[in-house]
Amino acid sequence: MKILANDGISESGIEALNNAGFEVTTETVAQDNLIDEINKHNYVGILVRSATKVRKDIIDACPGLKLIGRGGVGMDNIDVAYAREKGLHVINTPAASSQSVAELVMGHLFSVSRGLYDAGLNMPTQGPDGFKSLKKKYGNGIELRGKKIGIIGFGRIGQATAKYALGCGMQVLPYDNHRTHTQIDLEINGKICSADLESVCMDKLLAESDFISLHVPAQKDGIAVLDTSEFSKMKKGVMIINAARGGVVNEDALISAIDSGIVSFAALDVFENEPNPREDLLKHPKIATTPHIGAATNEAQDRIGVELAEQISDLLS
Length: 317
Prior knowledge:
Blueprint: E1 2-5, H1 11-19, E2 23-25, H2 34-41, E3 43-48, H3 56-61, E4 67-70, H4 80-85, E5 89-92, H5 98-114, H6 116-137, E6 148-152, H7 156-167, E7 171-175, E8 181-188, E9 191-198, H8 202-208, E10 211-214, H9 228-232, E11 238-242, H10 251-259, E12 263-268, H11 279-282, E13 287-289, H12 298-316
Parallel strand pairs: 1-2, 1-3, 3-4, 4-5, 6-7, 6-10, 10-11, 11-12, 12-13
Antiparallel strand pairs: 8-9
């Protein structure tokens, strides 16, 4: 049986699938050509990440397709309910990338709090002659220890982020519609230390947080979680990190909040118009950006590939 890994899959995942008797193709097929290629090569499964979309048209036009797999958490690029209604298996890997996304968030937290992203851009060109002026410019950073971080969405990734934040001495303010109390276990030198965290209301999170990190899926009808109303309730000088999904932060409202001084800096790994993010975001001096690399570590991709292979083998062998 043939599997099309259209957005790629790790070598460990390919090996596991081959060992289970599957033939894997990793050559990317353009979105408009997917239906023809799936039918031409009799693919029984298609694996995607965030780039390829599997909508109703593909599901209806490819009767030989038995499985759709998402390497990662969110499945907003797949018509999940419709596919399952038609008898297809739809799978994902919700736990495999939590660590990697959380580490990227922490990287952005350190970067925006100390101006690392901007200094890295300016040092090569201005450093030789303007070292002292740059030192003065970046000499007003802030420490993470003692600061409050609001985490919107407290599932696996939100909790993984909380562990790192707690380790840095931050106070965590979680917000989640589905849980009121969460126990976070930290392993330190082989010993487990537990922290009991109570969810707060959104208004408290917005008013008190020094940093806000989002860990929620794309919202129904594209509604933003952080929009003009939410920015107006925030503590002045707050820093925003979005490594969740493009659209959960209204980009126009974010720029307005930065320009008005409500938000001091932002870091974005995801964008509304991927893979063509707007230029004013990318060039804004107070926005650090990365190209949707939250789960893009070797370790996470190995976990994703192996977990997908195991699920496929169980369902289709």
